[in-house]
Write a structure and sequence with these properties.
Keywords: DNA-binding, Methyltransferase, Nucleus, Repeat, S-adenosyl-L-methionine, Transferase. By secondary structure, the protein is α+β, with helices and mostly antiparallel strands. Helix content is 25%, strand content 20%. It is globular.
Length: 1364
């Protein structure tokens, strides 16, 4: 910006050009001001219409000119001011009054090429006539033109305000609605914290009294804030806070990228910068108006020159504050080193050049710090404020601003630590103004999402997390039970172990143990005088690995260890020695891999080895040296790590690593090894060879009495089997084996096919419609025997099932409560059902008896052992806990949930569960202090009372839950490397360390898989570098250190009977010595199954599958996915009333409404805001139909009933929706009653903005009744993008109860709220539902846990051990 005075005209010329541009040849005085200092050309009242102005509304329009002149006469008030103050007009007086500093800018700050380019552009403009320039700028309307009528606050019509076309500007007021934004009644408390947060992009800032003139951002820094002076304009979109589990749903991600309408904001009341919370400084800039907070995203092209240097200075100071948080001795020199190491491209893109050390000495930056830094530091807690002023770099920046007595009170030699003696930190700063997150929210449900307390961890978790969560605030509570940190004893180092080269000088054999076919076997071998015997473990010179994926991982940077042998060598257990007929000397060895070569990679213990089920013959000369390996037994702690001995040859092993499954599981038990070795020659005792032999047999088609075996299946004549589909469907077919031929050479399996009862509209012999004997209209367990015979190859047989001929309804229900159980009572001839002839139904008696024996043993185990005592963390409304309890294998006695509404819901629906409404960190700290003999005070519960009766060690068998997912969520477009919420996983594992339960389960969004640790913060929420899949590695590493086996996988809830798509990553943990649960196999063929996920070790993370072939991973399942109609088709219908505000009611409208009410029996309710109650059925209402399928029958079970019986509720509750504005309601009811119809089908009077976003996405989407729900949302509004919230056949959105059914909650389940306004109550209910784990998935996990309990108990019974 250059402001010049012409001696001839004594008028000001305002030229948009380089900040440093000057003409040495002119005699006129020129003043150079930096572009980060606020400058505005104030207009004289006599400005003519020939003088163009920059209007905020024009910034989103293409502008061919980047420079123009504006002639502005000086005002009389400025006549006596110095030239510099005259140029900046009254704003200079504002600046002087508020003490803002005005720096000069050096010519060297701007590149010469850039100046030349801008001069050329300036010449292009100045060569034009004023008329030409004016016409060019007419491409977009100005603010003045919008206000030319003289009515500055004139409102447009309703439809104009809601459906503005491109280029139209909307005034901000309380009636402004942004697409995708939560309805405004959520913010009706009147608090600044209760107004919405929005995103402002393509923005400009200007003085409110002169809307045609832009200002630099600096006046917004003034204190007190100049309220009412400045305004802003730009494109506005809703800000979506990722506070839910709406993980990979594309609709949520798309909702965060909408361009939004151009809005002219009301007066700016507050400017928020460098906001401090959760031990971090917020990088974003916020402005607040009367109606909303706005995040400043990108300036408009015309405002960019005024904003760039300001934002550059903001970025530098943010970088300084971030570095000083982790290093209290940070200096200017340290920052200079950092700036030189920064990747330049993000800053070149943003500022036209990289951040440089010279920026630290620029007057503009020092002026910015002078205006900002003291305010930022004073906003911190008092004890931290003094500490910050003692940081060398901060002190330098404050010099000249602090008073001398303040400076003298700070000593550089004794800079205090942030933590107090009690390791706690005040993380509730009082920022200037009202801030965004610095005071307690009036809505408790919003308040609990802030995670104000530091994360509390236990010693082992703290030691491991300290290496990967650098920069986070973790408070270690408690002490180790043993001398875990002591230096290990009897550690062997390299200097104590002889080393061999590839060609040992001497090789001698020990005693001969066996000879056959010219090959001699020995009990030992002597290399260079060092004897090696069978059973020892050796370090081996690496060769060529045939597994290229593993070989590539071996050489990758993350797969390296501080132990030199772990990084570069191989490990092998000596199984036997032999010399072949050619005289070659060999050893056969069982392979181990170092921890850094597994999924753990760089997080692995430097002395950890893991067995793998692989072995090889290796040259005897490849032995490098001996090492010692301690094989851990269950309950034995891992070996303490030796950090200062990189050449240690002492290692430990406690688990097997399965690369394909990404599992760490128990070492084989002695009985398992002995059983596997049966049949092997005594001199070839290799466990891996035995396993390979079993696998070879497993993959062979072999004849057995009455049938064949293949891939672990034993099939006989009369067995019922699943058959892989030959068409595009993923539904497994069912048939009964009639005959088996040609085994093993040309195997053929002849099968009699069964049809699904639901596939055909059956008729009886009398011509009447037929229904299943279960009384359900649609029963997926009911089959019909056909006369069709088909022949299959054994590889098309994908498992066995169990089908019984049953006609009694009670017997049917008892039979089908087990997985893979079906029934039939008729056979078909075409579409006609015929009775089954007597004695024509046969089954394989031996297989049926075996099946019943399995069921009986499981029942006995359940009777002999109490259900596991469960402790659920981050319990929410109880989706996971309810599903676990429904399995019968878990009794959730304790639950922790910080949200008052969710805790109240959990407590109400689980009266026997002790629910603690308190922060998990504070509770864990209390428990550790209590169990260490202290007497801490009880913590208060946020739903009343005190948190008493907390469990003691030994009282918890199973800890499970899902830590908050916001930090990991895929819809979080502002991921932060230092997000404190990512550390809550550490807290959850600390509960495991303290209680040491038998089992552990962690649930979270798939985004957790891609979240790195120790990453650098990049642009636009990107995390750069760091530990790939860091959270996964941390969870695995920690559980292994705590003595657990661990496995993880991504499961799709729709594949387990949920009527929606919702993927979740699940971690199972089980103490060493007991069987770890498998993942449940899919039961429903959902159209979008779980996918493969890339892993840093090269092999993918495979989804769960029913496939028996380890080389095939399919998504076939025996039952169809639950559809929308399956889930909610039995609920009472109702419509929203059409308000007819935009389109007057016609005779046809009245006739249709009458038909729907009188004929279709669909009543209507007003859904427009201001109603005394919610639209729908506020009070419980009777069901209009009996359950029509098994899903409906299941969700209608009374409390405490787990079997699907005829008992069910008579009434349904929570069957209502929220209220909305008239225009939203009218649009909703005008969406055609067609599957997947959306806003594109609205009549012209109700059309939305025709933007690119609205062209390619769906608003007001209607569900397909035969399709599936999108991921359950924490908000329910018709105008949320791509969520399809409209009922498939009724004129409204989904109700609270219908959303609960999407998650599988039973109809007796009530959703509570601590709020007292109608909108907030409904929003609380939807938030709890949307954040829950789908109950069908939780139930499947509970049953999988039960199967592991049964296997463990039967194993202990065989070994004579007591029950668990």
């Amino acid at each position: 910006m250059v402001l010049s005075v012409s001696p001839r005209r004594k008028s000001y010329k305002r030229v948009l050009s380089s900040p440093d541009e000057s003409d040495a040849g002119t005699e006129s005085k020129r003043t150079r001001l930096s572009s980060e200092v606020t400058i505005v050309a104030f207009r004289e009242k006599t400005i003519t219409n020939q003088v163009p102005r920059v209007s905020p509304e024009s910034f989103n329009q293409p502008n061919p000119f980047e420079a123009f002149e504006e002639t502005i006469p000086p005002t009389d008030d400025d006549a006596d001011l110095p030239l510099q103050d005259q140029t900046s007009g009254t704003l200079s007086r504002v600046r002087r009054r508020r003490g803002l500093v005005l720096p000069e800018t050096s010519n060297s700050d701007v590149d010469e090429d850039e100046r030349s380019t801008k001069r050329a552009r300036l010449d292009l403009v100045t060569d034009s006539t004023p008329s030409e320039k004016y016409n060019a700028l007419q491409a977009s309307p100005t603010v003045s033109e919008f206000e030319a009528s003289g009515s500055r606050h004139t409102r447009t019509s309703r439809l104009t305000r809601k459906d503005t076309s491109k280029g139209t500007v909307v005034d901000e007021d309380d009636a402004l609605r942004i697409e995708g934004e939560t309805p405004p009644d959520e913010y009706d408390s009147g608090s600044d914290d209760d107004i919405p947060i929005r995103v402002l992009t393509n923005f400009c800032i200007y003085e409110g009294s002169h809307p045609g003139e832009l200002v630099f951002p600096d006046p917004l820094l003034a204190e007190p804030f100049p309220e009412g002076i400045f305004r802003a304009s730009g494109n506005v979109r809703a800000y979506v806070e990722p506070d839910s589990d709406e993980e990979e749903d594309e609709s949520c991600a798309a909702a965060m990228t909408t361009v939004g309408p151009m809005v002219r904001l009301s007066s700016i009341l507050e400017f928020n910068f460098h906001d401090y919370k959760n031990r971090a400084f917020n990088r974003q800039l916020y402005i607040r108006t009367q109606f909303a907070w706005y995040i400043l995203e990108e300036p408009s092209p015309a405002y960019l020159p005024l904003y760039t240097n300001f934002f550059r200075n903001h970025e530098i100071l943010h970088l300084i504050l971030k570095q000083c948080l982790s290093d209290w001795t940070y200096t200017r020199k340290d920052l200079g080193v950092l700036l030189r190491e920064l990747e330049p491209w993000p800053y070149v893109a943003a500022f036209g050049g990289p951040l440089q050390v010279s920026d630290l000495q620029s007057e503009s930056f020092l002026a910015y710090c002078s205006n900002v830094l003291e305010s930022v530091i004073s906003s911190l807690p008092r004890k931290d404020s003094r500490k910050w002023k003692g940081i060398p770099l901060i002190r330098e920046l404050l010099e000249g601003y602090l008073s001398s007595d303040e400076e003298s009170s700070i000593s550089f030699s004794t800079i205090p630590c942030l933590e107090d003696e009690d390791n706690s930190v005040d993380i509730k700063p009082k920022f200037k103004g009202k801030g965004l997150d610095t005071k307690k929210h009036s809505n408790k449900e919003m308040e609990v999402l802030k995670h104000r307390n530091p994360t509390v961890v236990t010693p082992i978790v703290g030691r491991i997390s300290g290496n990967v969560y650098n920069g986070h605030q973790l408070v270690v509570a408690g002490e180790l039970d043993s001398n875990e940190d002591d230096h290990p004893k009897n550690v062997t180092f390299a200097s104590e172990t002889p080393t061999h080269k590839f060609d040992p000088e001497s090789i001698e054999w020990g005693n001969i143990v066996h000879e056959e076919d010219g090959t001699t076997y020995f009990e030992s071998a002597i290399l260079d005088g060092v004897e090696y015997t069978i059973g020892e473990t050796v370090i081996v010179n690496p060769g060529s690995d045939k597994n290229r994926v593993r070989a590539n991982n071996h050489e990758s940077d993350p797969a390296q260890s501080t132990n030199i042998y772990g990084s570069s060598y191989w490990f092998c257990r000596l199984c036997y020695f032999f010399e072949d007929p050619e005289g070659n000397k060999w050893f056969h060895g069982q392979w181990f891999v170092h921890g850094c070569k597994t999924m753990l990679q760089e997080t692995a213990h430097s002395q950890s080895l893991f067995m793998i089920n692989e072995c090889d013959n290796n040259p005897l000369s490849s032995i490098f040296k001996r090492c010692t390996v301690k094989m851990l037994v269950p309950d034995e702690e891992e070996v303490p790590e030796v950090y200062d001995e990189p050449d240690s040859t002492s290692f430990y092993c406690g688990l097997i690593w399965d690369e394909e499954a990404t599992d760490f599981t128990d070492l084989p038990r002695l009985t398992d090894v002995e059983a596997a070795l049966e049949g092997l020659l005594p001199h070839k005792g290799c466990y891996s060879c035995a396993i390979k032999r079993q696998q070879d047999v497993f993959k062979e088609i072999r004849r057995i009495p009455g049938g064949y075996s293949y891939l672990g299946l034993r099939c006989h004549v009369h067995d019922y089997v699943y058959i892989v589909p030959r068409s595009h469907t993923s539904l497994l077919r069912i048939g009964q084996i009639v005959s088996i031929k040609g085994i093993p050479a040309e195997p053929k399996v002849v099968v009699r096919m069964f049809q699904r009862f639901d596939e055909v509209s059956w008729v009886g012999t009398d011509g009447g419609d037929m229904e299943p004997l279960s009384g359900l209209v649609k029963d997926e367990r009911c089959l019909v025997r056909s006369q069709v015979m088909k022949t299959f190859h054994p590889h098309e047989i994908d498992g066995t099932c169990f089908v019984q001929y049953i006609t009694d309804r009670d017997e049917i229900e008892e039979w089908v409560k087990h997985d893979d159980h079906f029934y039939f009572s008729s056979e078909c001839n075409g579409q006609t059902l015929l009775p089954v002839p007597a004695n024509s139904s046969h089954s394989c008696t031996a297989c049926v008896n075996d099946r019943m024996d399995v069921i009986s043993k499981a029942g006995l185990v359940r009777l002999r052992n109490q259900a596991l005592c469960g402790l659920e963390l981050f319990a929410g409304a109880g989706g996971l806990g309810t599903g676990m309890d429904m399995s019968g294998w878990v009794e959730t006695k304790y639950a922790v949930e910080f949200s008052p509404a969710a805790a109240s819901t959990y407590s109400f629906n689980h009266p026997s569960t002790q629910v603690y409404c308190q922060d998990v960190n504070l509770l864990l700290k209390y428990i550790i202090e209590r169990d260490s003999g202290e007497n801490p005070e009880y913590l208060p519960s946020e739903i009343g009372g005190l948190c008493t009766s907390l469990p003691k060690r030994g009282e918890v068998d199973f800890i499970f839950g899902g830590a908050p997912c916001q930090a990991f969520s895929g819809i979080n477009h502002s991921r932060r490397a230092d997000d404190i919420r990512s550390t809550l996983v550490c807290n959850m594992l600390s509960w495991v360390e303290h209680y040491q339960p038998s089992y552990f389960l962690l649930e979270n969004v798939p985004g957790l898989l891609s979240f790195p640790l120790l990453a650098e913060q990049g642009e636009n929420g990107r995390l750069l570098g760091g530990i790939v899949m860091g959270v996964v590695k941390f969870v695995q590493r920690t559980l292994i250190a705590l003595g657990y086996q661990v496995r993880h996988k991504v499961l799709e809830a729709g594949q387990y009977g949920a009527p929606q798509g919702r993927q979740r990553v699940i971690f199972w943990g089980a103490r060493r010595g007991i069987i770890i649960p498998d993942f449940p196999v899919p039961t429903h063929c959902y159209p979008k199954p779980a996918k493969f996920y890339k892993q840093p070790i090269g092999c993918p993370l495979r989804p769960a599958t029913r496939s028996k072939d380890p080389d095939v991973c399919h998504s076939f399942a025996p039952m169809r996915a639950i559809t929308v109609n399956d889930a909610i088709g039995d609920l009472p219908p109702f419509d929203w009333k059409n308000p007819h505000n935009a389109i007057p009611e016609s005779a046809e409208d009245r006739q249709e409404a009458k038909h729907r009410i009188s004929v279709l029996k669909i009543p209507s309710f007003s859904a427009v805001k201001g109603q005394p109650s919610w639209p729908g059925y506020v009070d419980p209402i009777e069901y209009p139909y009996l359950p029509m399928n098994r899903f409906q029958k299941w969700v209608r079970l009374p409390r405490g009933v787990t079997a699907v019986t005829d008992a069910h509720f008579d009434k349904v509750s929570l069957h209502y929706t929220a209220t909305f504005t008239s225009i939203l309601v009218e649009r909703t009811v005008n969406i055609p009653l067609k599957p997947l119809a959306d806003h594109h089908s609205l009549p012209p009077e109700l059309k939305l903005n025709d933007t690119r976003t609205k062209q390619h996405h769906a608003f007001f989407g209607r569900l397909d009744g035969n399709g599936h729900f999108r991921t359950a949302m924490t908000q329910m509004s018709p105008n949320i993008k791509d969520t399809y919230p409209l009922h498939p056949s009724q004129k409204r959105i989904l109700t609270v109860r219908e959303c609960a059914r999407v998650q599988g909650f039973p109809d007796y389940y009530q959703m509570r709220s601590m709020n007292n306004t109608t909108s907030k109550i409904v929003n609380d209910q939807h938030r709890q539902i949307g954040n829950a784990v789908p109950l069908p998935l939780a139930l499947a996990l509970g049953n999988a846990l039960g199967q592991a309990i049964v296997k463990t108990q039967l194993q202990k019974d065989r070994e004579g051990s007591p029950v668990i």
